[in-house]
Amino acid sequence: MGKASVPRRPRWRLLAAAATAGTLTATVLAFGTPYAFADTLLSDDFEDGNSNGWSKSGGSWSVVTDGSLVNRQSGTSSDARTLVGSTGWTNYGVQARVKPTGFNGANRHVGVVARAQSSSNYYALVVTSGGAVQLLKRAGGAPVALASGAGGPTVGNWATLRLEAVGSALRGYVDGNLVVETTDSAFASGRVGLATSYASASFDDVAVDTQTGAPPTGGPTTGPTLPPTGPPLDPMAPPIGFASVDALGQDGTTGGAGGPTVTVDTAAELLTAIATPGPLNIRVDGMIALPGPMHDVTSDKTVVGVGADSGITGGGFNIGLPVSNITTRPPDAVHNVIIRNLNFRNTVDDAINVQMFSHHVWIDHNDLSQGYDGLIDVKRGSSYVTISWNHVHHHTKTMLLGHDDNNGAQDIGQLKVTYHNNWFDRTPQRNPRVRFGDPVHVFNNYFVYNTDVGVACQLNSGCVVEGNYFEDVEEPWSISYAGQRGRMIARDNVLVGSSEPGDAGGTVQEPSTYYSYTLTNPNDVRAVVMAGAGTGRIGL
Q1: Catalytic-residue membership of 526
Q2: Dihedral in degrees, nearest 10, Cα atoms 440, 443, 448, 451
Q3: Parent domain of 380
Q4: Above 90 in pLDDT, residue 462?
Q5: Which of 66, 409, 523, 526 is deepest in the core (most CB within 10 A)?
Q6: What is the pLDDT of residue 213?
Q7: Cα(102)–Cα(479) distance, rounded to whole angstroms?
Q8: Between β-strands 159-166 and 169-174, what pairing exists: parallel, antiparallel or unpaired?
């Protein structure tokens, strides 16, 4: 699990100022298909260590560590609220990760707030001490339940709550599932917030946007937002980038090649397969619910999804030994692992975590969203990794490379990673965020509406950012995002609606020193990546 170890520039105020509340524009792409661009009004994961800009009413609010940094309300003797945003916001969805930690009696609740005119006039989606889910209206007096359902989290467990207010329609989602809905016209606009009533709770990953409809919970994003895919790509094509390099006694990345093939469709079968010693090809058939948080994948494994709709929910994959303070690569470091054509949803920690000097890992053609922490994190001395053709969306803390400013003893000289042809689809930050890695190669990716930063290269890391397509990205790249500066060569990138390219500078070793590659014309990258990234593209 990674987190920022230095204060990060506050970004939500920039989002709120730049966005047009209550609007949803459609841009016609080269495919002739309308593609919806939602405005991100606010995003706050509290990793800057504070809740500046939030106005508190009652309770005891503070930013504390609960796995990652969270905003916690610890009092249970009164109602408590904290609000942020604009009273002019109209049609939007507000969501947050919520974990109840205690209820002082029956009929108490915790949840998220929308269209708040004041601390006593708002709508709320809450979970109660009895496990119910309610849409509430508070108009000066006690809250009134407008609609009720079931399926709220119990004490000590996280869930993602999303409240949408569009016109007079109110819809409440828990972990992507529509649970309650109703109509009410008392409040047409207002701020967002977090609320507890005689209860304590932790809140994290607050996001507000004009996209409506539940985030995905199963297979890949489908429908008019995806262009025609064209013919499947060659499933036998080897990786490009650092995963292809002969190094550390490993001849490229071949996964389970030479081993038997098994097909799994249950959690027990999958967990047995990824733990089996020796080369093995594992075919995942359907969506498999794993317990959290993450499960170890051993060396010489290929894990692939069958068709476009197979994958993992709940738990994630850990590629690496247990965390320790060693500073040299151990002889039993996990290596030669391929993860392809899988959907990852609702993971309670990282979806894919690569750590502890693991090497030769290829993460390709996956669809990842709606996780708790990182979607794909690489850290603690890992190296020779390629992350390619993945579609990432409905998530904030996307990809971390190097987890902490103080981990140089393990990371310096390691963290050689290639990111190519990925679709960073409205993922505000960490696209990726880099510490120490050198060189890190980011080429031919499509970045769209990243409302914080695209590539953040810091702490003496060295990045080559080339041939990418940045569309409506607030700051496409930066070497001074937070903390000590990195080094970056930025060349041949296309900027569309991205008025602030960011800063670059310094010298970086050329990736071509390690491997050969061919750049796609950056003007074609958007079309190529949208047609090829994600699951169901490689004929498996």
Answers
A1: no
A2: 20
A3: 314-532
A4: yes
A5: 526
A6: 60
A7: 42
A8: antiparallel
